[in-house]
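Notes to self after the call with IL:
- keep both proteins in one doc
- input above output, always
- annotate only the second one for now

Protein 1:
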Amino acid sequence: MNKAIIVDPLDNVATTVTDLEAGSTVEFRFGSKKKVKVRQPIRFGHKFALTKITKGEKVIKYGEMIGRATQSIEEGDKPFPSIFL
C-alpha cells in the first residue's frame, strides 16, 4: 500500500494517505528508488519532507511552490509551521 502521494519529481514534500507512526518508512520512485523514514507521527493528509530543505528554500508539492522554509527541515520531518507562503 502506498503511504504517501508524490506527484512530481520536483516535489520535496509528500502527502500522507494514512496515519504514519514515528520511524515508519515510506518508499517512492521517480527515476530511482528512495526510502524516507518519518521522524515523528504524521497524520493522514499532512506532509513530510522527502529531502533536507534548507532555510529559505522553496517547499514544492505537486510540482508547485507552496512556500519557503523559515528554518531548515530535516528529511522525514513535518514542514509546518516551518514554511511561509
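Protein 2 (the one to annotate):
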Amino acid sequence: MKKLSFIALTLTLCCSVVTIYSCRKSKVEDTDQLLYDLAHQNTGFIWYKNFNSLLPKSSGSGHAQPFLKVRYNNIAATQLDSAGKVRINANFPQGSLIVKELHQDGGTLARYAILYKQTGNGYADARGWVWGYVNIDGSVVEPSVNRGAACVGCHSQTGSIDYMLMNKYFP
C-alpha cells in the first residue's frame, strides 16, 4: 500500500511539473507571438526622423544585418520631437512599441528587434520593457523570457535614452 501511495504521489508531482512547464512555455510563446504580431503590422507608425529609408548599421550595433529602419507606434511617438528624433531624457509610456527592422543586403527584411513597454507583463525588465527578437517568419531568435539579456548591454551604453540609441548613432 505504501508503495502504491508513493507511486501515485510521484505521478502527481510529475504531472504537476509538466503542467507548470507547459503553461510557462506557452505563456512565453504567446508573448513572443504577440511581439511578432505587433511588429509585423506596418500601419500607424512614425519612422525615426520621419524617414523610412534604410540606414547603414552603426558602429555600436551588435546585429548581423547591415541595414535598419526604426519605427514607433503612436504612443511611443509622443516621445519624438518635431524632427522625429527621440526627445532628450525621454521615458516612453506604457503601450509604447518600438520596432527595429533589420535588413540584409539588397534591403530584404530579415528580423525584428522589438521593445514593448508593458510593465505588468511577467517578462518585462526592470524598466518595464518586454524585449523581442524574431525573424520575419515568426521564429524566435531570443525569447522574451530572457528579458533582453542579449540586448541590454548594448542598449545601456552611454548616450542611450530609455534604451534608444538612434540619436547617438544617427543624429
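Annotation: Residues 2-40 form the longest helix (39 residues). Residues 4-25 have pLDDT under 50 and may be disordered.
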